């Protein structure tokens, strides 16, 4: 359990900061030469730098207002909501999970398309016209909207006249995720993949050459021996089928089945398969990982480098807007100006946090900062600082005599003691054993109530001994987790008990069980080593979301194509069905196949949900038994899927996890983070600044990951900048002089 | 095709080198103060440094002679041969592939043990007695020999009196590979694994916690629903079985089978399995790779650092033996001494090669070298330099008029033209198509002869236009490959044709086919990009051999244990057998099991060969269906195997391939290699020094891999050493002063 640090001095009490806060009151007087428009413009630059937006907007006051509206979080969420609805339409369109009439889905799609058009028009108003049509992502969105409309009309017309029609434009839908302005993470990932492709291609060609050679050998070695597979088909007689089988062997899906007929014939033939697996599964797959890792990293690093440069550029522009000259010296920005700017950029920032950032920037208390210190602002704003005022416990204020009495103090000491934690760890473990026992025994059901009471007691005791607002502050993940789980479990158990009087609800019971088991997870957080691993995993969480989007885009496209190719080929029959077709999934081609025998009938492309689940199964193990039901060329679909998802995307995912762990193991904190921490200690601020695991933006993690590898010139400013020696405030980066 | 570079000046003609060679003749005169024993001692130090042997031998002349004998390649090969025989005994011992009487295997084993004892005694004579008993590897070998003898006696006695006996000491045999003095690569690998274990353990515990939690959830969600697996057994009702099934799901072996009953019941249950696979298969397996990679690398780096330090230490000792003072200056080693030393260390070194190494060391032609330059010698000797004298073609000497005639010149130009290569690439591709066709067609059989003639013609033409000794020099891998394949194919085809008159030999035909197909590989070498990838793979080849030994040790131990546990539980019946037991592999417990249905009966532990093949299958996909035939606790065997082989060793293998590729992508050449190349250019030596892919020792690759990461002090000498400015020949490394 990580408890909030407690310090006695609150920021309001600290004398150094009181001055700053008073200062900020008369910002309009010292910064009176700057107009509201100037501040708006500077704020937009800083905000763009902070979130790495690279949009060349018009700088007229009207365009800036429109641009601010464009970047409003509400509109961004709305866009994602419309995309989600558009993608979710696949659930209701033929082949549907929940069939809806065609006019309903069409109307919803039209509304979505209208929303995308509106967003595009809004964007067109923000940026110069000539830039708008030069940007491929705008053209892409425009084309997607247009093609979707055309497809809807053709599909409607064909359906109305009773012809066969395909909604081919559905493949384009996930591309919206990539091409909207907010999809820059995803675009960057795709760009890096595209750039890494040539290198991957060479290894892939070599790998395919190896597979083709082995297939030829297999054909010559086994083809004439008259062996049979367990399904009774001739073994290794058709070259293309051998190539496919051996390709699948690389994915380990058909091991050892594919080897058994040859191995049963002679033990020497095992040598062939062992060599094959060594070369193609182990060596080539590792080489794929190495090449994907290396190239993806290389291009991503290049992208991050450009990003950092663009960020500096924007910050220098903001500086240019707000700068003022004091006599002969370098241009500076006054504290008042800076305060107004920060409040514009981040309206919800606390005074103490702002003061802290200022004192990091203006290390020598000069009341103004130069270009170098100003440029840091975007990165400073991205460091998550939890400002925590250590307030007295409310009970101390309300009932001081009771709360400060010796029994009350004893309780507090007890709760804060390590033994309290260990006791509850033990209770959790005992609980785990009881959960494992049969819950229909009334004794055990009652014991579960006892555990629930114990957990509730724990939370109440903690709330009694710790300050409740600190206990429930935003970054106390495990406290929130505990409380929510315990209270939900309480509610679910009460509902369940109430219902049990009439009947047993399986769904409620399922929820109760899951909640009970989730409660056990807390044990992990109490072990330091485990917490370190989990924190790293949480840190890479946001980036895994980018991979999630990448996977959704690829899966969606494959699901749409797969549904058109394979829908209805395989049918699933409920367990209690007596249909004779059930034995072969409703397709006579699957009679006596392993696919039908293993009861895989629900692995089909009959609707978008089962398609997604099937694609996930294919990602794990490329079993593609049901290519039997279509033309042999359909196998290309599965091979392509394997190449795109397993060889490229999963490898990038692994590479990313590797890199993130290496960064955790080697890099400690960024320069800015440590200077921020130093400052907090120096100022003895009454706040514990927690650098939460995770950055506000994914780019923050990326920038830190490649920090060590970036060109010195990109970070020259940070490295040259010595807070104790402000004389070397030069700008070696030529980029900045051009402004 | 990489053709030998051709330069006109041969080393004999180069004036600078002529001097050197003449100098080396009177080495005994200038270095007359050193005795033969000194040179022997220095040579032993250098040789130890070159091969990273860390043996504290006695420095008496007699001990040195014994030590030289101990390191003789013949004795080393003999030791490996005896270990191989000892390991191979498993083929003949019960359960045997080829049964031999117990007294035969016992006698062979006794001979092997005697050989190991002799080697150990030899070693004891070489090093000081107190050191001998402090070294755990000596004690280990001693214990293995002793325990093997005890086991043989007990086993013999028990067998003779008709009791059941187990040859438990066979598990110890592969440990010999680790503990012999030559097994230092393997020991280093095991040491790095052992050091990385604690970190791996924490992740493994977290992973197991996750598996246990999910299993508990699965028990609660599915246990009471009365679902059945396709084998008709109750689905997810026993907690331990769920844990095992879900563990196997991580290896993807039972995907999607394990999910199907729940998925068929309700589509929502797929969410459970998807979450499980995401967390445990993708995230945890990546984290395992990251942790294994990072820790293994860290400890290996530490080992290499120690190695480099020890190497310097030994070279400084050698320097100390041979040094002489010239007046007031630093101690130096004269060229004559150095020459004698190098000839002792590497008797087969060519004069030109030695001269080259000297000129790299003595960059300023002073006739003697200091400590820093001397220390380089071990690394210089490890760089493979191919000395190639460009000699005229023998035909030019024998038949100059014919060979220099214009038609002959035209042929040479033609063969050396790119078009010749492309023509043969095309021929190979056409050949590939013909191989794919049915070889029983007499036309195609005859075409194959035509291709063979074309390939022979190619080799003859190349021998005509290129110098034959250069064509067949040691590093011309593809020329050798081509020639051997073509000639073997020719012989095999002739034998086959001769035999065909009586009968068709399938074995010969198989060889012919494989040779034909192997010939096609040559196409790859002609494509530059492919060659780069293949060269990297060849470079890491020797290290992969270390992994091979690691795998053999682990496999052998698991095979021995597995044979004791599972031998005879499953029987394999030949295809034409009519035994009714065939349907269930001779074990009624397997009736109607998927294992028997898939005809997996040959996947058993009935002898050492099938055990190894089965273990390989388990490495690829952990299918362990036949745990059904024994007690459920036998599953521990398979889980343990998976943890050791897949989670640890395979991940280390992948990490090594990754690292080697990154080194290829980023590092170009070591400092020494480039200074050697520079020297060759400077001296305009008439030899093309090829830095062959691959180092003479695995340590060379390791050292280069971690060169960038090593502490500066370890390489301070190399980096400070500026050949153009010999004034800074200082030794910042305190290690050297202690000598």
TrEMBL record, chains A, B:
The gene is tpcn3. It is found in: Membrane. One of its GO terms (molecular function) is monoatomic ion channel activity. InterPro entries: Ion_trans_dom (IPR005821), Volt_channel_dom_sf (IPR027359). Residues 76-299, 420-662 form the Ion transport domain. SUPFAM superfamilies: Voltage-gated potassium channels. The chain crosses the membrane at residues 73-92, 98-118, 139-158, 200-223, 235-253, 265-293, 419-437, 443-465, 477-495, 536-558, 608-629, 636-663. Gene3D superfamilies: 1.10.287.70, Voltage-gated potassium channels. Chain C. The keyword Transmembrane applies. Residues 1-34, 717-739 are annotated as: Disordered. Keywords: Membrane, Transmembrane, Transmembrane helix. It holds the Pfam family Ion_trans. Residues 723-739 have a biased composition (Low complexity). One of its GO terms (cellular component) is membrane. This is Two pore segment channel 3. Residues 1-10 have a biased composition (Basic and acidic residues). It is a multi-pass membrane protein.
